[in-house]
Amino acid sequence: MTKPTFSTEDIQCNTVLECLYSLTDMDNRVLSFLRKGGEYRAKEVAARMDRDQSTAYRSLEKLVECGLVYKEKHNIRNGGYFFLYSARPLDLVKRDALECLEQWYERMRTSIENLDEITD
What we know:
Blueprint: H1 16-21, H2 25-35, H3 42-49, H4 53-65, E1 69-75, E2 81-87, H5 90-113
Antiparallel strand pairs: 1-2
Helix pairs in contact: 2-4, 3-4
């Protein structure tokens, strides 16, 4: 009889955050850059990554949506506005990731407990 196994070798992600949030290589590079500190406009991130501004913007927006990066709107005195992006503190990211893991574990445990309810 073969027991179910889970091997970490089956995971194709390089980092936990990449797995949890389906981050691309570009997303990881942007996040790593922001983790060094500071607030940046999309065009500044694009220049640092040597990519188009639209590419950097897509990664930044995805990271904001995932809760890994802050986005702050700044008004320009004579009209208009711009956004600054910065990395969320790691302790908050860890807390959210652990909460996600707990929810996943609970769903898996409940599903396994309810296996007897499966009908053919």
